[in-house]
Automatic annotation (TrEMBL):
Gene this chain is encoded by: dinB
Residues binding Mg(2+), per UniProt: D14, D108
Ranges for domain UmuC: 10-190
Annotated catalytic residues: E109
Protein name as catalogued: DNA polymerase IV
UniProt KW keywords: Cytoplasm, DNA damage, DNA repair, DNA replication, DNA-binding, DNA-directed DNA polymerase, Magnesium, Metal-binding, Mutator protein, Nucleotidyltransferase, Transferase
Length: 360
C-alpha cells in the first residue's frame, strides 16, 4: 500500500435480510418461507424480502403486485419499525462494547473503526467473527461483515459471503481486489453510471484505473475524482460516531388512491403528528419543509419551502404543507404522501481517529 494511504481497521456489519429475518424470528411459521415486509398483492411497495423470496426476484422497492407475480407463494407482512429499532438497539449495544467509533448507516448496518478497540485485539477479522457470533447468540439473527483499510472497501467486502459470512481484504490485497472488481459492484456506482461506464469501455476496476483524472471529471463531474481515488484504495472518510441527521421524515402509502385535497389534508395531519413526535424525541427542528407526492402512476413530485426560522411544531409544519399542497393542481390521484424537514439545527461533531501501522 502507498505510504500516503492511511491504514485503518474498518469493519462493515450488515444484517442479513434484517426486517424479514426479524419477522421470521418472531413468527416461527414464517421460517423457510418467502416473506415480503411491506406492500400487498394489490398495491404498496416491498420494504424488505427474505432470502427465500429473493430467489424469485423479490427485492426491496419493487411493487407488491410485481412481488406476487414473481413469487405466487409470497407472504406479505406489515412492517413493525418499533420492533426493528428495538432489535437494532441491542445490536448497536454490542458494537459499542468493542469501539466507540460506530457510524450507523441504517437500522441494519454500521461501520466500526477497530484500529484501537476496547478488547485490545489486533485482529479486525477475529473481532468481526466475535461480533457476528454474539449477535447470533444474544439476538438470534445472522450478520455479514466486510473488513479492510477503509469504509469503501469494507462496504463492498461485506456483500461477498452473504448471508452469515465475512470477507477480509488485507492492506496488501486492496489494489488487486479493486482492479478485479466488476464496476457494477463499486459502492456508489448506480445502474445509470454503470451503463455510462460500459459505453466508455470501463467494465472492471483495472479499466477505471487506466483513465486519467481529467477524463473521469469530464464524463462524471465531481464524482470523477471520487472514482479516480477509490480504485487506487484512497478513501479517507473517517468513521463518524456522531453521524449528523440531515432530515427527518414521515410518509404513508394509502390503501385507496386520494383525489381530493381535502382528504389529503386529513392524512397530512396524521403524518405531521408522526413527524412532530420524531422531531421532539430527538430535540430537532428545521427550516425547510418538503411535501412528497407519489401519484397512482408511480411518478413522484416534491415541493419545498424554506422558512426564516426553525420549526418543529405540527401546526407550523401543516401551515406550510397546506401552502405547498395547493401550490399547483394535482396531475393525478395520489397513492403516497410524505412530509420531511431539512436544514436542521444539528451540529457537526467530528470523531477523532488514531491511525496506526498494523497487520490484519
Amino acid at each position: 500500500m502507498s505510504e500516503s494511504i492511511p491504514n485503518r481497521k474498518i469493519i462493515h456489519i450488515d444484517m442479513d435480510a434484517f426486517y424479514a429475518s426479524v419477522e421470521q424470528m418472531d413468527n416461527p411459521s414464517l421460517r423457510g418461507k418467502p416473506v415480503a415486509v411491506g406492500g400487498s398483492e394489490n398495491r404498496g411497495v416491498v420494504a424488505a424480502a427474505s432470502y427465500e423470496a429473493r430467489k424469485f426476484g423479490v427485492r426491496s422497492a419493487i411493487s407488491g403486485v410485481m412481488a406476487k407475480k414473481n413469487c405466487p407463494e409470497i407472504i406479505f407482512v406489515s412492517p413493525r419499525f418499533d420492533r426493528y429499532k428495538e432489535i437494532s438497539g441491542k445490536i448497536h449495544k454490542i458494537f459499542r462494547e468493542y469501539t466507540d467509533l460506530v457510524e450507523p448507516l441504517s437500522l441494519d448496518e454500521a461501520y466500526l473503526d477497530v484500529t484501537q478497540n476496547k478488547k485490545g485485539n489486533p485482529s479486525a477479522s477475529l473481532l468481526a467473527e466475535e461480533i457476528r457470533l454474539r449477535i447470533f447468540n444474544e439476538v438470534g439473527l445472522t450478520a455479514s461483515a466486510g473488513i479492510s483499510i477503509n469504509k469503501f472497501v469494507a462496504k463492498i467486502a461485506s456483500d461477498y459471503n452473504k448471508p452469515n459470512g465475512q470477507k477480509t481484504v488485507n492492506p496488501e490485497d486492496v489494489i488487486t481486489f479493486l482492479e478485479d472488481l466488476p464496476i457494477r459492484k463499486f459502492y456508489g456506482v448506480g445502474k445509470v453510471t454503470t451503463e455510462k461506464m460500459y459505453q466508455l469501455g470501463i467494465f472492471t476496476g483495472v479499466e477505471l484505473k487506466s483513465k486519467s483524472l481529467e477524463f473521469l471529471e469530464k464524463h462524471f463531474g465531481k464524482s470523477g475524482g471520487f472514482y479516480y481515488n477509490v480504485v487506487r484504495g484512497i478513501h479517507n472518510s473517517e468513521v463518524k460516531s456522531d453521524r449528523i441527521t440531515k432530515s427527518v421524515a414521515a410518509e404513508h402509502t394509502f390503501d385507496s388512491n386520494l383525489s381530493s385535497e381535502i382528504f389529503m389534508m386529513e392524512q397530512l395531519e396524521n403524518i405531521a403528528n408522526t413527524l412532530e413526535r420524531r422531531l421532539k424525541k430527538h430535540n430537532i427542528s428545521g427550516k425547510t419543509v418538503t411535501l412528497k407526492i407519489k401519484y397512482s402512476d408511480f411518478t413522484q413530485q416534491t415541493r419545498s419551502k424554506t422558512l426564516p426560522y426553525f420549526i418543529a411544531d405540527k401546526g407550523l409544519i401543516l401551515e406550510t404543507v397546506k401552502e405547498l399542497l395547493y401550490q399547483e393542481r394535482m396531475k393525478d390521484s395520489v397513492r403516497l404522501l410524505g412530509i420531511s424537514l431539512n436544514n436542521l439545527n444539528t451540529e457537526v461533531k467530528k470523531a477523532v481517529v488514531v491511525q496506526l501501522k498494523f497487520s490484519f
